[in-house]
Amino acid sequence: MSMKIRLARGGSKKRPFYRVVAADSRMPRDGRYIEKLGTYAPLLAKDSEDRVKLDAERIAYWLGQGAQPTERVQRLLEVAGINPKTERNNPIKGAPGKKATARVAEKAAKAAAAAEAAAAPAPAAEEAAAE
Question: Which has fewest Cβ within 10 Å: 4, 6, 17, 94?
């Protein structure tokens, strides 16, 4: 049985509220869980003390039992100081997508064509002015 520490969504439509729970990974997201370990209310202000409430003792117990926190829960634990901060590396994140790179290439081609067009008639105009 693989255990996860994850978020179970509650609250009404467009008003999310999450419980931080220890659950079997095969159970549905909002389904049966073994123990409630805290709450997370993302709509509250970031400096509000009610935004994230965690039971550090029980989380430490479940981590000791081999439970794996999800990415979002891992970040909540890092902010709370329960888990050490891990360095994340996503080099692709800042890179532009296919359409953006195509647009940039198209703009560069247009700019080069405009520069050529502007540079080509200028010598002919100078010759006409010299006569």
Answer: 94
Residues of the chain under the 50 pLDDT cut: none
Residue 15: partners with Cβ closer than 8 Å, 6 or more residues away: 43
Are residue 73 and residue 104 in the same domain, yes or no? Answer: no
Strand-strand pairing, 35-40 and 52-54? antiparallel
Q: How many CB atoms lie within 10 A of CB 53?
A: 13
To which residue do tokens 């000791």 refer? 64
pTM over 0.70: no
Query: In angstroms, how far is the first alpha carbon of the chain from the final one?
Result: 92
For residue 32, the SS3 value is coil
**CB burial string 15-49: b at 16+ within 10 A, e below:** eebbbbbbbeeeeeeeeebeeebbbbbeeeeeeee
Q: 90 in a domain, yes or no?
A: no
